[in-house]
């Protein structure tokens, strides 16, 4: 696992780094510590990571802006902050976990476990997805998303109005922060089950989900039976 | 001889007959209802007399002759004069007039007479002495005063149908009034009705005296019990002088005082109106803080005196004009207060204006209805005072709330969860890695919290304590961040007083907004400036791009609120970027320069 930690207090950074090394042991491929988000951003441009441990003062406007920039990135964001009163809000933007300060090794391990474990989901699902657009970060309301199509290292959000938005996260990472209503129906598709009208099985073991707006999406054979039961 | 005697006698008879004046023609009587002849100020007394009652013209003669009382005496050559045009201090005089009921005089007359005058007199009805008030005389020594109001009853047999002659023998050496003439108010009605009139006359002044006395006493008690607010005292003065004046007005009707009291009583009442006018104007001037108050108040006394002197004839009107002057000046001051948007100016302006209008419409009937005319002013003054008191209570409550909020803000500054949790996170790392260092760290944190606890509830603290708090905070921050941040101080008097956590807040702002190097000092420089001290505070390092420096974050609001709390209106704050960082300049002067309440 590749990690970046962004923390301006050296004692706390030291503590975070120490715990990460102890928890991940051999699983830790790379750990980079930065004092500010800007400092980390330069490094991240060259060095992709799986997760950022981000210390934020969420009280001000600036903290929320940094949060949006972080969650719009390809990596997962774990917030490490004393502003526990803003935790729910942070989750709504799509962080995978919120570790309140002061923190124990066990609490940090639980957060890292969410990132490491495939299929694990955030305690609270995102209600908005931050997407980068022309150098800015914009928010897309989760309720507007019909389905998500994987496209290699990034994903495409398909909205109810037909618009498409690119997101830097992979389909796997998005799955971890999306509401439980979203199901992985195919290796390339995450669909909001409430938007599904019917499932069709055609000849040659070809399965499809027909959405309420008429769009048909492929279903992997392994998921068809389970999905049909869920839909019923 | 006989013939001579007869001729002489005849001649004598002729001469005598020739010398005997021709019998006078019966005088032409002018009959009218007494209300028609009376002046406005006393007309209310006559309007209710029987509609059929008629008085003839009043005839007057200097000199003294007992026969002049007789109804048959021919007074055709007597001078016609009004009741109020009798020369004062001019020997014994006689007045004659006739009364009847109906133009044909066929009705019987009412049984009661009420006479109000300061003159001494004897009253004859158809030649019979009905009574007297004092004894008329030819000089001050021989005259004896009677009572200002007297009542007589006419025996039934003497008031049958027809004309009746009223004759009065009178003198006026003790009237007291400086005017050259004086007179009578002569009322003829049923005795019970005349009594009713008197009761009615006494009613309003009695009521007014009680009411004004209560309000005046309430004003005085409030003045004594509260913070000796001068306007309460003045309100008390306005009401109590009014109460005394109205008591004197009522006094006449309950205790029928001697006629020579009347002038001093009226003079005292006029003086009381003057006092009341001065109190009223003083109230308005003080209440609204009108400029040049000494000139306004000092000018009133000569103006009142001039007004009194210019109208020596009519006691009644002196009071009216004095009150009118007082009302005009008050109205001017209240108008000024309305223009300057003073709190409570409108009620006073409206009340004074209402009183002015009432006064203009019924100027002459002034003393009797004084209270009703003065009531709007009184209501205006009291309402305005109430509004001001209400304002003060609100301000005091707000100040209390602000003080409480400031205290909470102060505690929040360093007890805020964010600061403590971040510090505890750092502490927990030090505990695991360097237990001895952790103890020192906790000591530093405790030091800051102790400094802060010492300040809670204080509005001002010595600079020494403020600087201790700042340094304790920087110690904790330095430990947490691994930087060496200090505070350099120049020219600060450590005993001078400063709102708590003022500079601590500037340090916190500096830490958030300025990107300072790892080893750095905040700088606080104090210099005398203006009437007080000028403190310039430098947060070193360039301003962070992301954060900026908003015009009024919570920190800055705290600073401004604290400055206003302790140095209301006597402080300034300015800030801006300088080459070496961000400079905040605060100045204040601790004592009000002019002694005015801030």
The Cα radius of gyration of chain A reads: 19 Å
Task: Report the major sheet of chain A.
Answer: 5 strands, parallel
Helical content class of chain A: 25-40%
Structural class of chain B: alpha+beta
| CATH third-level topology of the largest domain in chain A | Rossmann fold
Q: How many β-strand stretches of chain B? A: 19
Largest interface: A-B, 21 and 19 residues
Total number of helical segments of chain B?
A: 15
CATH architecture of the largest domain in chain B: Up-down Bundle
CATH classification class of the largest domain in chain A: Alpha Beta
Strand order of the largest sheet of chain A: 2-1-3-4-5
Polypeptide structure, described:
The complex is a heterodimer of chains A (232) and B (598). Chain A is an alpha/beta fold and 232 residues long. Chain A has 2 domains: 2-116, Response regulator (Rossmann fold); 128-231, OB fold (Dihydrolipoamide Acetyltransferase, E2P), CATH 2.40.50.1020. Chain A has 7 helices and 15 strands. In chain A, strands 2-1-3-4-5 form a 5-stranded parallel sheet, with helices on both faces. In chain A, helix 1 crosses helix 5 (105-116). Chain A starts with a strand and ends with a helix. The mean pLDDT of chain A is 86. Chain B is of the alpha+beta class and 598 residues long. Helix content of chain B is 50%, strand content 17%. Chain B has helices at 2-19, 34-37, 43-47, 191-225, 230-254, 262-287, 293-310, 315-339, 345-361, 370-415, 417-433, 435-455, 463-481, 502-513, 554-566, and strands at 53-55, 59-62, 79-80, 86-87, 93-101, 112-116, 120-125, 128-133, 149-153, 164-171, 181-182, 185-189, 461-462, 484-490, 497-498, 519-529, 532-540, 571-578, 581-588. In chain B, helix 5 (230-254) runs antiparallel to helix 10 and helix 7 (293-310) packs antiparallel against helix 8 (315-339). Chain B is rod-shaped, with a radius of gyration of 44 Å.
